[in-house]
Specification:
Distance between the termini: 11 Å
Number of helices: 1
Radius of gyration: 15 Å
Order of helices and strands: EEEEEEEEHEEE
Strand content: 35-45%
Structural class: mainly beta
Largest sheet: 7 strands, antiparallel
Amino acid sequence: GFMFDIKAKKSISIFGLDANLVPSSVIQNGPEVNVTVYTKEGSYKNHESDESSWDLWMTTTITSYGMDGPTSIPQREEDAAMPLFVAAREKRSFYLAFDGPYLRYSHQEDVGDKKMYYINHDMVIYANGAAKRKGWDGTALSP
């Protein structure tokens, strides 16, 4: 899985997320992937292994759109969670936990001069989060 922070520039409602997954042809047990999304107010830092500080936002099954194609979480309207309200200037964290090693991300050595954050009119997404090898007990790595 992967943990990351966002900071809202204005009040926003989040209905879902997109992830970059491996191609469906390499996913065990077919193209479907189970994903659980947790969230918490504030940064994920110092909470990587503290399940009690996180809130479950949604659990769903998705189909990978493949490398470099955004895969929506959730994909079906019936799997949608309540929209998540984030107040202006609030920092919020997300933890995307998959049932296998299906998320694509880059190690810092591979990033070169690419920025590790993304900004639009609504928010800043800090992409230099923590990768988790195995659930809450797993080791947190810096990609």
